[in-house]
Amino acid sequence: MSRVLKITAMALALAASVVLALAVNAYYGFLGLIALGLGVWLLADLVTVRDMERSIEGGTAPRHHELVGREVVAKHGFTQDGSAYFGRVTLNGESWQAMSADIVTSGETVVIHARVGLVLHVRRPQPPPSPAHDMRS
Asked: CA torsion 114→117→118→121, rounded to 10°?
């Protein structure tokens, strides 16, 4: 939803709330006005939380299934830390932390096979399978 549309929707909701509050205040008094205010506040809070969750899930960070199988390029050679190698790769112009079971050299193309948090698990591309020999002849 665009920023202008959100601001317009919030302004309309505020105007409707004021009109409703005046009507409630006239009929139910001050306690009705407080109850209406709490209801509007809780509804607005719920909408905001859902909007934030959607932004986090569908924000700039690609989802796991969108990454697996994609090729990325190592920015520098990976360094060993324990039994794994760690370094940085470039994905869509952004630098990501990456981990590999094998050493990766600077500029080498590797394939993403998993994403755990903000760390990409990469490995060297597998060579294409050789054509199967026809055993019928």
From this structure: -20
